[in-house]
Amino acid sequence: MNSSGYPPWVVLHIPHDSTFIPDQVRPQFVLSDHDLALELKRMTDHFTHALFAEPSGEATVIRAPVSRLVVDVERFAADDREPMAARGMGAVYEVTSHLTPLRRRLSAEERAELMGAWYHPHHEQLEAAVADTLERHGRCLVLDGHSFPGTALPYENADPTARRPDICIGTDSFHSPKALEQAFVDAFTRSGWSVAVNEPFAGALVPASRHHRDFRVMAVMVEVSRDLYLDRESFEPKPDFAQIAAEVRHRCVEALKAFQS
Ligand SMILES: [Zn+2]
Protein backbone atom coordinates (compact mmCIF):
# COMPACT_ATOMS: atom_id res chain seq x y z
CA MET A 1 0.00 0.00 0.00
CA ASN A 2 1.18 3.47 -0.87
CA SER A 3 1.64 5.18 2.50
CA SER A 4 0.86 8.62 1.09
CA GLY A 5 -2.66 7.91 -0.16
CA TYR A 6 -5.81 5.90 0.36
CA PRO A 7 -5.65 2.26 -0.72
CA PRO A 8 -7.79 1.10 -3.68
CA TRP A 9 -10.24 -0.85 -1.50
CA VAL A 10 -11.52 2.41 0.04
CA VAL A 11 -14.61 4.24 -1.18
CA LEU A 12 -14.72 7.79 0.18
CA HIS A 13 -18.24 9.02 0.72
CA ILE A 14 -18.74 12.78 0.98
CA PRO A 15 -22.47 13.36 1.49
CA HIS A 16 -22.79 16.85 2.95
CA ASP A 17 -20.30 19.32 1.48
CA SER A 18 -22.41 20.65 -1.40
CA THR A 19 -24.25 23.97 -1.11
CA PHE A 20 -25.96 23.56 -4.48
CA ILE A 21 -29.72 24.06 -4.66
CA PRO A 22 -31.10 23.53 -8.19
CA ASP A 23 -33.29 26.35 -9.50
CA GLN A 24 -36.33 24.11 -9.80
CA VAL A 25 -36.06 23.10 -6.13
CA ARG A 26 -35.62 26.61 -4.68
CA PRO A 27 -39.38 27.48 -4.70
CA GLN A 28 -40.07 24.58 -2.30
CA PHE A 29 -38.23 26.40 0.47
CA VAL A 30 -40.21 28.88 2.54
CA LEU A 31 -37.07 30.77 3.71
CA SER A 32 -35.91 34.14 2.40
CA ASP A 33 -32.64 34.16 0.44
CA HIS A 34 -30.89 35.47 3.55
CA ASP A 35 -32.27 32.76 5.82
CA LEU A 36 -31.63 30.01 3.28
CA ALA A 37 -28.01 31.15 2.96
CA LEU A 38 -27.72 31.07 6.76
CA GLU A 39 -29.22 27.58 6.92
CA LEU A 40 -26.72 26.39 4.29
CA LYS A 41 -23.93 27.82 6.42
CA ARG A 42 -25.15 25.99 9.50
CA MET A 43 -25.92 22.62 7.91
CA THR A 44 -23.23 22.13 5.27
CA ASP A 45 -20.16 20.01 6.11
CA HIS A 46 -18.05 22.76 4.55
CA PHE A 47 -15.00 21.75 2.51
CA THR A 48 -15.15 18.08 3.53
CA HIS A 49 -14.23 17.06 -0.01
CA ALA A 50 -11.02 19.07 0.32
CA LEU A 51 -10.54 17.80 3.86
CA PHE A 52 -10.81 14.07 3.09
CA ALA A 53 -10.40 13.59 -0.64
CA GLU A 54 -7.83 15.95 -2.12
CA PRO A 55 -5.83 13.98 -3.05
CA SER A 56 -7.83 10.77 -2.82
CA GLY A 57 -4.98 8.39 -3.67
CA GLU A 58 -6.42 5.21 -5.21
CA ALA A 59 -9.79 5.50 -3.48
CA THR A 60 -13.02 6.07 -5.37
CA VAL A 61 -14.83 9.24 -4.28
CA ILE A 62 -18.63 9.43 -4.21
CA ARG A 63 -19.81 12.96 -3.49
CA ALA A 64 -23.40 14.15 -3.24
CA PRO A 65 -24.12 16.66 -6.03
CA VAL A 66 -26.67 18.74 -4.11
CA SER A 67 -27.04 20.24 -0.65
CA ARG A 68 -28.45 18.04 2.08
CA LEU A 69 -31.32 20.56 2.20
CA VAL A 70 -32.40 19.23 -1.23
CA VAL A 71 -32.15 15.54 -0.23
CA ASP A 72 -30.00 14.04 2.50
CA VAL A 73 -28.31 10.99 0.99
CA GLU A 74 -27.07 9.97 4.43
CA ARG A 75 -30.62 9.20 5.62
CA PHE A 76 -32.59 6.04 4.86
CA ALA A 77 -34.84 6.54 1.82
CA ALA A 78 -37.96 5.31 3.61
CA ASP A 79 -39.14 7.48 6.48
CA ASP A 80 -40.28 4.42 8.49
CA ARG A 81 -36.63 3.24 8.64
CA GLU A 82 -35.19 6.69 9.36
CA PRO A 83 -35.24 7.79 13.04
CA MET A 84 -34.71 11.47 12.10
CA ALA A 85 -37.93 11.47 10.06
CA ALA A 86 -39.90 11.79 13.31
CA ARG A 87 -38.23 15.20 13.72
CA GLY A 88 -39.10 16.23 10.16
CA MET A 89 -35.56 15.45 8.98
CA GLY A 90 -35.78 12.28 6.95
CA ALA A 91 -34.19 12.18 3.50
CA VAL A 92 -36.33 15.20 2.51
CA TYR A 93 -36.17 17.76 5.30
CA GLU A 94 -39.34 19.55 6.36
CA VAL A 95 -37.70 21.69 9.03
CA THR A 96 -34.50 23.68 9.52
CA SER A 97 -31.68 23.07 11.98
CA HIS A 98 -33.73 25.25 14.36
CA LEU A 99 -36.84 23.12 13.85
CA THR A 100 -38.72 25.89 12.05
CA PRO A 101 -40.44 25.24 8.69
CA LEU A 102 -37.95 24.72 5.83
CA ARG A 103 -40.17 23.87 2.87
CA ARG A 104 -43.80 23.84 1.92
CA ARG A 105 -45.66 20.56 2.16
CA LEU A 106 -44.75 18.36 -0.82
CA SER A 107 -47.03 15.90 -2.58
CA ALA A 108 -45.95 12.25 -2.70
CA GLU A 109 -45.12 12.78 -6.38
CA GLU A 110 -42.92 15.78 -5.63
CA ARG A 111 -41.04 13.84 -2.96
CA ALA A 112 -40.60 10.90 -5.35
CA GLU A 113 -39.31 13.29 -7.99
CA LEU A 114 -36.66 14.71 -5.65
CA MET A 115 -35.58 11.24 -4.60
CA GLY A 116 -35.46 10.08 -8.22
CA ALA A 117 -33.42 13.06 -9.34
CA TRP A 118 -30.85 13.26 -6.55
CA TYR A 119 -31.06 10.50 -3.93
CA HIS A 120 -31.37 7.27 -5.89
CA PRO A 121 -28.72 8.10 -8.55
CA HIS A 122 -26.25 8.89 -5.76
CA HIS A 123 -26.90 5.56 -4.07
CA GLU A 124 -26.68 3.72 -7.39
CA GLN A 125 -23.21 5.25 -7.82
CA LEU A 126 -22.23 4.20 -4.30
CA GLU A 127 -23.58 0.67 -4.83
CA ALA A 128 -21.65 0.39 -8.11
CA ALA A 129 -18.41 1.66 -6.56
CA VAL A 130 -18.69 -0.84 -3.71
CA ALA A 131 -19.55 -3.72 -6.06
CA ASP A 132 -16.61 -2.83 -8.31
CA THR A 133 -14.21 -2.53 -5.37
CA LEU A 134 -15.35 -5.91 -3.99
CA GLU A 135 -14.84 -7.52 -7.36
CA ARG A 136 -11.33 -6.14 -7.74
CA HIS A 137 -10.11 -6.38 -4.15
CA GLY A 138 -12.39 -8.84 -2.33
CA ARG A 139 -13.25 -6.24 0.29
CA CYS A 140 -14.30 -2.65 0.57
CA LEU A 141 -14.25 0.04 3.23
CA VAL A 142 -16.68 2.93 2.98
CA LEU A 143 -15.07 5.92 4.68
CA ASP A 144 -17.84 8.41 5.37
CA GLY A 145 -16.39 11.94 5.70
CA HIS A 146 -18.27 14.61 7.65
CA SER A 147 -17.86 17.64 9.86
CA PHE A 148 -19.98 19.00 12.69
CA PRO A 149 -20.49 22.35 14.41
CA GLY A 150 -18.59 22.96 17.65
CA THR A 151 -21.88 23.77 19.35
CA ALA A 152 -24.94 21.54 18.97
CA LEU A 153 -27.73 22.85 16.72
CA PRO A 154 -31.30 22.67 18.07
CA TYR A 155 -32.33 19.77 15.77
CA GLU A 156 -29.67 17.54 17.30
CA ASN A 157 -31.54 17.36 20.58
CA ALA A 158 -28.18 17.61 22.37
CA ASP A 159 -26.91 19.83 25.17
CA PRO A 160 -25.60 23.02 23.47
CA THR A 161 -23.28 23.70 26.43
CA ALA A 162 -21.64 20.26 26.27
CA ARG A 163 -17.99 20.13 25.27
CA ARG A 164 -17.60 18.33 21.98
CA PRO A 165 -14.63 16.28 20.80
CA ASP A 166 -12.38 17.40 17.94
CA ILE A 167 -12.98 14.13 16.12
CA CYS A 168 -15.91 11.74 16.23
CA ILE A 169 -15.50 8.20 14.90
CA GLY A 170 -18.81 6.59 13.94
CA THR A 171 -19.12 2.83 13.78
CA ASP A 172 -21.63 0.13 12.92
CA SER A 173 -21.97 -3.05 14.99
CA PHE A 174 -21.82 -5.28 11.88
CA HIS A 175 -19.55 -3.40 9.48
CA SER A 176 -16.94 -1.81 11.77
CA PRO A 177 -14.46 -4.33 13.21
CA LYS A 178 -13.24 -3.34 16.68
CA ALA A 179 -9.65 -3.21 15.38
CA LEU A 180 -10.70 -0.73 12.70
CA GLU A 181 -12.39 1.52 15.26
CA GLN A 182 -9.33 1.34 17.53
CA ALA A 183 -6.95 2.14 14.66
CA PHE A 184 -8.88 5.33 13.86
CA VAL A 185 -9.10 6.36 17.53
CA ASP A 186 -5.36 5.75 18.01
CA ALA A 187 -4.35 7.57 14.82
CA PHE A 188 -6.36 10.73 15.55
CA THR A 189 -5.33 10.70 19.21
CA ARG A 190 -1.70 10.90 18.05
CA SER A 191 -2.60 14.25 16.43
CA GLY A 192 -3.28 15.62 19.89
CA TRP A 193 -6.98 15.93 19.07
CA SER A 194 -9.71 14.73 21.40
CA VAL A 195 -11.51 11.72 19.96
CA ALA A 196 -14.89 10.19 20.81
CA VAL A 197 -16.65 7.14 19.37
CA ASN A 198 -20.27 7.53 18.23
CA GLU A 199 -20.50 10.82 20.09
CA PRO A 200 -21.98 13.30 19.20
CA PHE A 201 -22.92 11.37 16.02
CA ALA A 202 -23.27 7.61 15.69
CA GLY A 203 -23.18 5.08 12.91
CA ALA A 204 -21.47 4.60 9.55
CA LEU A 205 -23.09 4.42 6.15
CA VAL A 206 -23.23 1.19 4.14
CA PRO A 207 -25.05 0.72 0.81
CA ALA A 208 -28.55 -0.67 1.35
CA SER A 209 -27.97 -3.93 -0.54
CA ARG A 210 -25.03 -4.82 1.74
CA HIS A 211 -26.40 -3.47 5.01
CA HIS A 212 -25.92 -6.07 7.75
CA ARG A 213 -25.56 -8.74 5.05
CA ASP A 214 -22.08 -8.58 3.57
CA PHE A 215 -19.18 -8.67 6.03
CA ARG A 216 -16.70 -7.90 3.21
CA VAL A 217 -18.06 -4.36 3.30
CA MET A 218 -16.59 -2.41 6.20
CA ALA A 219 -17.56 1.09 7.22
CA VAL A 220 -16.32 3.90 9.39
CA MET A 221 -17.47 7.50 9.71
CA VAL A 222 -15.01 10.28 10.47
CA GLU A 223 -16.51 13.55 11.68
CA VAL A 224 -14.23 16.56 12.13
CA SER A 225 -15.24 19.46 14.37
CA ARG A 226 -15.66 22.57 12.24
CA ASP A 227 -13.93 24.52 14.99
CA LEU A 228 -10.67 22.86 13.90
CA TYR A 229 -10.74 24.26 10.38
CA LEU A 230 -13.58 26.74 9.84
CA ASP A 231 -13.93 30.33 11.00
CA ARG A 232 -17.10 30.52 13.12
CA GLU A 233 -18.12 33.94 11.82
CA SER A 234 -17.25 33.85 8.12
CA PHE A 235 -17.57 30.06 7.56
CA GLU A 236 -14.35 30.39 5.53
CA PRO A 237 -11.44 27.98 6.02
CA LYS A 238 -8.97 28.95 8.74
CA PRO A 239 -5.48 30.04 7.54
CA ASP A 240 -3.99 26.64 8.41
CA PHE A 241 -6.70 24.71 6.55
CA ALA A 242 -4.28 22.95 4.18
CA GLN A 243 -2.26 21.70 7.12
CA ILE A 244 -5.35 20.45 9.00
CA ALA A 245 -6.63 18.71 5.86
CA ALA A 246 -3.28 17.01 5.31
CA GLU A 247 -3.33 15.87 8.94
CA VAL A 248 -6.88 14.46 8.64
CA ARG A 249 -5.95 12.48 5.51
CA HIS A 250 -2.65 11.35 6.98
CA ARG A 251 -4.39 10.00 10.10
CA CYS A 252 -7.06 8.20 8.05
CA VAL A 253 -4.41 6.56 5.87
CA GLU A 254 -2.31 5.71 8.93
CA ALA A 255 -5.35 4.08 10.61
CA LEU A 256 -6.07 2.01 7.50
CA LYS A 257 -2.44 0.91 7.33
CA ALA A 258 -2.43 -0.10 11.01
CA PHE A 259 -5.70 -1.97 10.58
CA GLN A 260 -4.46 -3.83 7.53
CA SER A 261 -1.22 -5.03 9.10
ZN1 LIG B 1 -22.49 15.31 7.65
Per-chain topology:
Blueprint: E1 10-14, H1 33-43, H2 48-53, E2 60-63, H3 108-137, E3 140-148, E4 167-170, H4 178-189, E5 195-197, E6 217-225, H5 241-260
Parallel strand pairs: 1-2, 1-3, 3-6, 4-5
Antiparallel strand pairs: 4-6
Helix pairs in contact: 4-5
The protein binds zinc ion (ZN).
Proportion of beta-strand residues: 5-15%
CATH top level label = Alpha Beta
Q: How many discrete structural domains?
A: 1
What CATH architecture label applies?
3-Layer(aba) Sandwich
General description of the model:
The protein is an alpha/beta fold and 261 residues long. It has a single domain, classed as Zn-dependent exopeptidases (Aminopeptidase). The protein is 30% helix and 13% strand. The chain has 5 helices and 6 strands; from the N terminus they run βααβαββαββα. It has a 6-stranded mixed sheet, sandwiched between helices. Strand 4, helix 4 and strand 5 (195-197) form a beta-alpha-beta unit. The longest helix has 30 residues, at 108-137. The protein is globular and about 50 Å long. The protein starts with 9 loop residues before the first strand and ends with a helix. It binds zinc ion. Zinc ion (ZN) is lined by residues 16, 45, 146.
Give a quick set of tags describing it.
single chain; 261 residues; Aminopeptidase; six-stranded mixed sheet; 5 helices; 6 strands; 30% helix; globular
Give a quick rundown of the structure.
This protein has 261 residues and is an alpha/beta fold. The chain contains five helices and six strands; from the N terminus they run βααβαββαββα. It has a single domain, classed as Zn-dependent exopeptidases (Aminopeptidase), CATH 3.40.630.
